[in-house]
Amino acid sequence: MQKKALVIIDIQNDITKNYKDIIDNINKAIDWAVNNNIHVIYIRHENLSAGTRTLKPNTHGSELASDLRIVSKSVFTKYKGNALTSEEFTDFISKNEICDFYIAGADAVACVKSTCYNLRKANYGVKRSDVWYQYRHDMYVYVG
């Protein structure tokens, strides 16, 4: 495996009202990562606050979307916007010596942005390809 990872952020049943428009491109990115021997990591968000109705633990809404291609057991849960707040995720990064990341996610102005910012702040590489597809202002997906 290369020391790179494609990280899929929050493609879950509750958060993906418009994800159907980009799921094919996300799945293409997953195929690209598999074909290039790059780790594929899935990040799930769960809301623990009593006042929230979506992404509650152990609900259908917090599960990964059914048409998202799952090619690894590397599924980690976060409770804040930044994926690096998941200890299991950071342990996986360290154990596998991952230093460069490609990111795809449902919300480029929240969790994707926070994760990219914090990866860069921690001196990890956040790679962009010649082909980035933006759907609307808040949904990004890498297509290799």
Characterise this structure.
By secondary structure, the protein is α/β, with parallel strands linked by helices. It is 23% helix and 23% strand. The protein contains three helices and seven strands, in the order βαββαβαβββ. The protein has helices spanning 23-35, 87-95, 111-121, and strands at 4-9, 39-45, 75-78, 100-105, 125-126, 132-135, 139-142. The strands form two sheets. It has a five-stranded parallel β-sheet with strand order 3-2-1-4-5, sandwiched between helices. Strands 6-7 form a two-stranded antiparallel ribbon. A hairpin with a 3-residue loop joins strand 6 and strand 7. The radius of gyration is 14 Å and the shape is globular. The two termini are 17 Å apart.
Number of helices: 3
**Shape type:** globular
What is the tally of beta strands?
Answer: 7
Main sheet? 5 strands, parallel
- List low-pLDDT spans: 129-140
- How far from one another are the termini? 17 Å
From the alpha carbons, calculate the radius of gyration and give it in angstroms: 14 Å
Question: What percent strand?
Answer: 15-25%
Task: Specify the structural class.
Answer: alpha/beta
On the 0 to 100 scale, the average pLDDT is 83
> Roughly what percent helix?
10-25%
**What sequence of helices (H) and strands (E) makes up the elements?**
EHEEHEHEEE
With strands numbered from the N-terminus, the spatial order across the biggest sheet is: 3-2-1-4-5
